[in-house]
Amino acid sequence: xxxxxxxxxxxxxxxxANVSCVFGIPSQHNLGLYDALxxxxxxxxxxxxxxxxAVHAADGYARATGELGVAIVSTGPGTVNAVxxxxxxxxxxxxxxxxxTQIDTRYLGKGKGxxxxxxxxxxxxxxxxxxxxxxxxxxxxxxTIHRVMAxxxxxxxxxxxxxxxxxxxxxxxxxxxxxxxEYASPAPLPADDAMLDAxxxxxxxxxxxxxxxxxxxxxxxxxxxxxxxxxxxGAPVVSSVNGRGVLPAGHPLYVGCQTHxxxxxxxxxxxxxxxxxxxxFQALASQYWQQPMPKNLIHIDADxxxxxxxxxxxxxxxxxAGLAAEGLLTRVAPVDVDGEFAALARHVRDALAQAxxxxxxxxxxxxxxxxxxxxxxxxxxxxxxxxxxxxxxxYLLAIRGPRIGHYSTGLAIGPALPIGIGAAxxxxxxxxxxxxxxxxxxxxxxxxxxxxxxxxLVLCVFNDGxxxxxxxxxxxxxxxxxxxxxxxxxxxxxxxAMGMPGTRVRSADAFADAxxxxxxxxxxxLIEVDLDSLAPIRMFG
Length: 541
Prior knowledge:
- The protein is α/β, with parallel strands linked by helices and 541 residues long.
- 40% of the residues lie in helices and 16% in strands.
- Helix 1 packs across helix 2, helix 3 runs parallel beside helix 4 and helix 13 packs across helix 14.
């Protein structure tokens, strides 16, 4: 009887789910899996320089494509390094699968000090995933991976992990062992008809409705249905940062995603109904839950756990955003939206944009204009947690469709470069990454990954010689900067040493020239921007 290995079983589990690309780092503990991927040859393996980068890249791939992102690492140090990436994927509701290893089954749990022994690894993984499982028999590899995949894709997407002891990856299995494990993606959660009827009646009685849409509309591929619903109702729309692009920038109903700014409260206080779809009202977006939400809040989300968590809902619909929106489209009629409320929405839209524009100053406004003019409308944009992103990258820069705008949802510094690599490789489209000098240092080695893969990437490093956001926070809390000024390298020279061309700019005009060159480059390109040479961003007043 012909045989296959446990590594082959992992391959077949991935192929059954139409996985075509994985990110990771080989180790003596996962060589059986890498050997199987090599022998079969039709799943692309992207080698990163750090396990954190591998999971972030898988996350970026998932966000930009809507497909499952897969990372492969090794037990112990490799898995510990991967935790940051899983944390970010969970915060962003991103479908990411981590496949890692464990020490040989004969040593497992015995505390003998075997290489990379990490007996509590599964418990650690469960702190940053919704479901993590350990395989104890080679025959269970396919079924276990598919079970975790199904959890990842059920309801609100969340990362999951599977750990497989090294000896099981090399163990022999009958060739037909994977045949009975065809994979079917979980069906989206349907909405209850009676609840949709109630929501439709409530909307029909409203005269000042407001739609608040989030990343759940993107992950459910519901952008078209939600946009048509907004247009049917005629209500103004705000979004979370992850919900950008559901209504493209410039759409007449789209107010913006700057719900954290005081001007937005004028609109919210006038609304007689808020229809929230696929959002959990995160802290910053809701001004730390101090916004006066109207009593008539209708909350639709695929995750029952987030409904009512931050604001009580008058009506709660646990359902896939797309199915709920499609169901409402058959039930609601255009609303006679109050004219003054509609005018207020347009005024607030302009006021929010103007507030950000004043905050960033003329030079950064010109940089925004350059990007919007030159960057293709379908190019992914990935922002790190940095001053430029937290002012104009996330809130002013036009996002013209779903799965285009991405950011460090957990507000950690560092993820943007590997997330951008995953997005660039997944879509094949020129991808813009907006970084600060402090954050980019955390995953700087992934420049080599970008070069080796020829990722179509423009990496913009806005350099102020330190942790600019923290420096601003220190000024308004303790009154003095401490431990936030950094020695930073010559990023252009450093990138060149790794094979990435680049240039340094000190003006908005020079940025325009450099950005045009970067877009024309075949492969990745770095632009270092000297922030001290530009009119300052007044993020903290």
